[in-house]
């Protein structure tokens, strides 16, 4: 019986312990990321020219380690989790969600932040959480595929909830972005993982809001014109960002593409040099996740260049193209907040902080093309219930505009590309023994092979 079976209770307890572990790891990862970024800021404080050395060397080292020691750790981690949910081959799933890759994802993301890369930790946290829960399922030898899939979903959701301290966003993200559905059996496990993760986050980090608290509201009339502008421009820029990443994932054309494929380490160093130059132009504001800048904009205390959102946009694109592990959540929210701050100049009769929230929601929804996740994350991170309707409207509008620029969602398309590449590599490995056998037989003079 479900309520009295010792075996089922053992699984439940192990699952709950896994959810707690995911949240604990996410919090440690967040604190380590802050320390890594602080280390870079300390090294370049008053010596901005050092970024010209640290960024190229750090990004080149990160790509080298990714290719040699932690293959499969590149990227944000969310496409890999989506791909694992669509696979049926247990060996491939174990490979994608291995603890070795999860450890590499954490270490290399920290290295990127310590080198000034414009990346986030939230995407990697999703893969780390999914890997921990998948390893738990392997340890318990859970036979049902649905249960194993639910564990991966729960791990990813708990990772988002703990990374942002946004429990509801964790659930919505698992439904809208990772699974694209809501199965009854899965939903209970996801909710349980998020609740336990939220308890651990409250115990270790307190009841905080990720980007501070704002109590502004947007009046009807002229103020709502900002919804149209933030949704339209945010969707355009977010769709352009996604389309750039998707186009680059297929490789650069012509000689440039051949050179990048032949010299990935050198290309990463060039990206690091470009990041250093952009960072120096912004006074160091574009380095790192962008969390501090977004938080200051939400609270109305920022002193940033007017074109910060353009520079941060470029820095995030370059960081992703370099091949270093890292996510785009926090940098995208930072770009959106800065975009809203710039647009606020055109709406002097509306609260600037309200426009900042709209810009954040609009650009983020344009990038991920998951409007529900976008407005839930922004509202939960800022505790701004009075802005619920305007933020929702901006997210939906930005999603629609983004689809005009980028016809396919970023994470889903990257996941399909990852699946195709993984299956191609598997087929090549299967063909290798046959090819080796053929070569040996040809070398021995067996002419029957050609017939």
Describe what this molecule looks like in 3D.
With about 450 residues, the protein is mostly helical. It has two domains: about 5-205, Clc chloride channel, CATH 1.10.3080.10; about 220-410, Clc chloride channel (Orthogonal Bundle). Helix content is about 75%, strand content about 0%. Helix 2 (about 50-70) packs antiparallel against helix 5 and helix 10 (about 225-250) runs antiparallel to helix 15 (about 330-345). It starts with 5 loop residues before the first helix and ends in an 8-residue tail after the last helix.
Task: Look at the structure and give the mean pLDDT.
Answer: 82
Fraction of residues in helix: over 70%
Helix-strand makeup class: mainly alpha
- SSE series: HHHHHHHHHHHHHHHHHHH
| DSSP strand count | 0
Low-confidence residue ranges: 182-187, 439-451
From the coordinates shown, what is the CATH architecture of the largest domain? Orthogonal Bundle
Would you give the CATH topology of the largest domain? Clc chloride channel
Radius of gyration: 23 Å
Number of DSSP helical runs:
19
Beta strand %: under 5%
Question: TL;DR?
Answer:
This protein is 74% helix and 0% strand. It has 451 residues and is mostly helical. The protein folds into 2 domains: 6-205, Orthogonal Bundle (Clc chloride channel), CATH 1.10.3080.10; 222-410, Clc chloride channel (Orthogonal Bundle), CATH 1.10.3080.
């Amino acid at each position: 019986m479900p309520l009295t079976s010792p075996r089922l209770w053992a699984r439940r307890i192990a699952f709950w312990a896994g959810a707690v572990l995911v949240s604990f790891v996410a919090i440690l990862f967040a604190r380590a990321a802050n320390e890594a970024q602080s280390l870079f800021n300390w090294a370049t404080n008053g010596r901005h020219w050092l970024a010209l050395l640290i960024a190229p060397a750090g990004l080149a080292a990160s790509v080298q380690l990714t290719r040699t020691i932690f293959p499969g750790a590149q990227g944000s981690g969310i496409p890999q989790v989506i791909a694992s949910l669509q696979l049926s081959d247990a060996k491939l799933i174990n490979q994608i969600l291995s603890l070795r890759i999860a450890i590499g994802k954490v270490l290399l993301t920290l290295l990127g932040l310590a080198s000034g890369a414009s990346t986030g930790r939230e995407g990697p946290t999703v893969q780390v959480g999914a890997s921990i829960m998948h390893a738990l399922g392997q340890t318990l030898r859970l036979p049902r595929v649905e249960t194993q899939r639910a564990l991966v979903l729960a791990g990813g959701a708990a990772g988002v909830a703990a990374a942002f301290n946004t429990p509801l966003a964790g659930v919505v993200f698992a439904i809208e972005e990772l699974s694209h559905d809501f199965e009854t059996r899965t939903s209970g496990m996801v909710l349980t993982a998020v609740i336990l993760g939220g308890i651990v986050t409250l115990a270790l980090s307190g009841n905080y809001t990720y980007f501070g608290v704002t109590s502004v509201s947007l009046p009807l009339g002229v103020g709502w014109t900002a919804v149209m502008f933030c949704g339209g421009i945010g969707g355009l820029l977010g769709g352009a960002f996604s389309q750039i990443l998707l186009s680059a994932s297929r490789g650069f054309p012509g000689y440039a593409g051949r050179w990048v494929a032949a010299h990935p380490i050198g290309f990463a160093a060039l990206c690091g040099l470009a990041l250093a130059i952009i960072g120096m132009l912004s006074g160091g504001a574009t380095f790192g996740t962008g969390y501090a800048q977004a938080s200051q904009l939400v609270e109305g205390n920022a002193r940033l260049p007017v074109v910060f959102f353009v520079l941060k946009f470029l820095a995030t694109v370059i960081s992703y193209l370099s091949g270093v592990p890292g996510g785009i959540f926090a940098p995208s929210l930072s770009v959106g907040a800065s975009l809203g701050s710039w647009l606020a100049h055109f709406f002097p009769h509306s609260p600037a902080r309200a426009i900042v929230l709209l810009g954040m929601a609009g650009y983020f929804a344009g990038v991920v093309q998951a409007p529900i996740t976008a407005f839930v994350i922004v509202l939960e991170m800022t505790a701004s219930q009075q802005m619920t309707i305007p933020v929702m409207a901006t997210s939906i509008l930005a999603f629609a505009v983004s689809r005009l620029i980028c016809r396919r969602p970023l994470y889903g398309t990257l996941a399909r590309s990852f699946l195709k590449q993984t299956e191609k590599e598997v087929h090549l490995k299967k063909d290798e023994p046959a090819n080796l056998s053929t070569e040996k037989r040809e070398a021995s003079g067996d002419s029957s092979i050609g017939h």
